[in-house]
């Protein structure tokens, strides 16, 4: 069964107050969909009501206090045509794997079960997974694509438990959650009337649409940008390589994954390209941005890209072709940090 869900259909977006989710909500509304967002706290999410007030009753919020509870989403899924499940903890502070793995996995199985039982109108479920579920740690160049899995993070958590470290705990949480979703779909194949699309973004960077009054309120990924541009990186860290995607592109991928019929049943990596942390400082230098440290220009010129991501599916299925220049990201991030009066960027 391959069904596209087009506007003015209603989409349920879980964790609607999150960094990426606010952009996802914005993109759905701009595309003409109606959105029901779930949040843990209405008080904390009041800014959403203000931000999207001009959409009137096309935007609503409901509270789901504990996403790990059986039946947590039973009411929320009623009457929606599609679901984007983004809610999942993303931080590098966990000391116990359960802290991240339980909400990531049970949150996913909980919404899948609620959709199975009560999502009579649902035709598509888009899951925000991550490149965390696709790539493993490498020391020599390797290409990862939608057929590869981060088995080593799951294995490390299984064998080493709490000693494994917070980053690996996060990587395992995303891998286990995505696996749980595909397993669920395989198990309930004959009972479900919707299909699953998984979006796998690497680090999502770009200005937040959330209040984030202090630096400590910045979400985990954009904090990487802040820390780099404010000079908190060692030489070793500046040599590290990652992959990133602009938050607007990652959000748009969710919308296209909803209305592109052929995306059903696919994992899709969505990336703007690889980067070294030094590249962010080089971009700031090129833009002539004052007060941003220059790092060590030329530091990475002989280092190969070791984590390579294939981008064909995003191009072919979702039509996401343009790679965002890192310079644009740095320019808009610095502007955003200045407007918020963050330390190091006060005008
Ligand atoms: P945020 O921390 O900004 O948002 C996370 C959202 O999930 C919030 O709505 C949060 O609610 C909710 N959440 C977190 N923990 C729980 C929990 N235990 N129970 C219920 N809800 C919870 O993260 P991002 O926007 O950065 O990430 C959103 C999604 O995108 C996640 O699934 C993440 O893994 C994925 N992703 C993010 C990337 C990135 O670089 N940002 C890259 C790839 C994937 P509350 O505010 O109430 O805590």
From TrEMBL:
Protein name, per record: NAD-dependent epimerase/dehydratase domain-containing protein
Biological processes, Gene Ontology terms: methylation
Organism in which the protein naturally occurs: Multifurca ochricompacta
Superkingdom, natural source: Eukaryota
Family, per entry: Belongs to the NAD(P)-dependent epimerase/dehydratase family. Dihydroflavonol-4-reductase subfamily.
Keyword Metal-binding applies: no
GO molecular function terms noted in the UniProt entry: methyltransferase activity; nucleic acid binding; oxidoreductase activity, acting on the CH-OH group of donors, NAD or NADP as acceptor
PROSITE patterns named among the record's database cross-references: N6_MTASE
């Amino acid at each position: 069964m391959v069904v596209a869900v087009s506007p003015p259909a209603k989409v349920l977006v879980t964790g609607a107050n999150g960094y990426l989710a606010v952009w996802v909500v914005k993109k759905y509304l701009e595309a003409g969909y109606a959105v029901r967002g779930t949040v843990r706290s209405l008080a904390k999410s009041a800014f959403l009501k203000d931000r999207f007030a001009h959409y009137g009753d096309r935007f609503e919020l409901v509270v789901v206090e504990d996403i790990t509870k059986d039946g947590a989403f039973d009411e929320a899924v009623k009457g929606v045509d599609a679901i984007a499940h983004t809610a999942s903890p993303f931080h590098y502070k966990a000391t116990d794997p359960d802290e991240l793995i339980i909400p990531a996995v049970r949150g996913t199985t909980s919404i899948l079960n609620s959709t199975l039982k009560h999502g009579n109108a649902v035709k598509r479920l888009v899951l925000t997974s991550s490149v965390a579920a696709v790539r493993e740690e490498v020391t020599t160049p390797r290409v990862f694509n939608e057929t590869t899995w981060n088995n080593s993070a799951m294995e490390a958590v299984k064998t080493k438990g709490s000693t494994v470290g917070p980053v690996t705990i996060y990587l395992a949480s995303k891998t286990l959650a995505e696996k749980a979703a595909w397993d669920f779909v395989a198990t309930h194949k004959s009972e479900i009337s919707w299909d699953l699309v998984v979006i796998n973004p690497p680090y999502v960077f770009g200005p937040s649409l959330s209040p984030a009054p202090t630096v400590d309120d910045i979400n985990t990924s954009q904090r990487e940008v802040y820390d780099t541009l404010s000079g908190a990186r060692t030489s070793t860290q500046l040599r590290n390589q990652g992959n990133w995607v602009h938050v607007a592109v990652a959000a748009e991928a969710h919308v296209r994954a909803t209305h592109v019929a052929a995306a059903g049943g696919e994992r899709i990596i969505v990336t703007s390209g690889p980067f070294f942390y030094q590249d962010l400082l080089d971009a700031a230098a090129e833009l002539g941005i004052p007060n941003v440290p220059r790092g060590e220009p030329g530091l990475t010129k002989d280092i190969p890209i070791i984590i390579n991501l294939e981008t064909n599916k995003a191009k072919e299925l979702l039509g996401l072709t343009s790679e965002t220049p890192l310079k644009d990201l740095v320019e808009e991030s610095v502007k955003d940090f200045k407007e918020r009066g963050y330390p190091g960027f006060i005008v």
